[in-house]
Amino acid sequence: MSKQSDLVNVSQGADGDPLYVDTTNNAVGIGTSSIDYTAANRTVVHIEGSSGALLAMEDTGAKSYLFQAGDDLLIENDTASGSMIFGTNSSTERMRIDSAGRVTMPYQPAFVAYNAPATLTNNAVIVWDSTALNRGSVYNTSNGRFTAPVAGLYQFFASVRIENSVGTATYHRVSFRYNGSDIYWSKSRLNPRTVTGYYTHAASDQIIDMSAGDYVDVKFEASFSSCSTSSRTEHVFYGYLIG
Q1: I want to staple 113 with a disulfide (CB 3.0 to 4.6 A). Which of 18, 128, 140, 217 is the partner?
Q2: Collapsed DSSP state (helix, strand, coil) of residue 8
Q3: In degrees to the nearest 10, what's the CA dihedral of 21, 26, 32, 36?
Q4: Strands 45-47 and 27-30
Q5: CA atoms within 13 A on the CB side of 204
Q6: Which domains does the chain have, with CATH numbers?
Q7: What is the pTM of this model?
Q8: Which residues of 193-212 are buried (b: 16+ CB within 10 A; e: fewer)?
Q9: What does the pLDDT look like over 76-116, one tens digit per residue?
């Protein structure tokens, strides 16, 4: 904390809250003389109170800012649309809360991949070579991997279709791998096949806690060695950041 000898009591407001200026660190305390200007915090403005709005700003125009556009951090109230906008990196919009309370985050990592291989092989990684969505280029159509751009919880889903030409089978399934290792608790969807002449799907979904740079892909497993697939667009793998 700043030393008392560094502080100048500039004024005493009608409500009794003083305004202090720390002349050594060029910091301001409103309602407090204990300005936390330490090596760890470097507080420049310290506001303290017990009730009401500690900080209020009003602009009669269409927009009001806590930080102006062009700053590294933007907090903007668009009064015309009733939206609150948050931005980073030269004020690029990252999150918006609209007048109905709906939250949109246009840079959240997400992908939808389709077009699985023409042949599904037992114990082989499935590579979907097309994407309907690939926000942030997080999915690689060459190796079938989703790579996490940031640490967090991610939701995944994968499904493949088995052709009606395949004979009887004890099981077939899809399961997720994390950094090349099987996630055994994702092997929960077993689809027994006892007759021919019917299409079936194997599917799995999973929430995975990932670090930045880690990857997830999908493996096909079955009691048969391989099968051909004609409707490649009916196979899908998608995922997105939960938070």
Answers
A1: 128
A2: strand
A3: -160
A4: parallel
A5: 23
A6: 4-47 (no CATH), 63-104 (no CATH), 110-241 (2.60.120.40)
A7: 0.70
A8: beeeeeeeebebebebebee
A9: 777 778 888 888 876 788 888 888 989 888 889 999 999 98
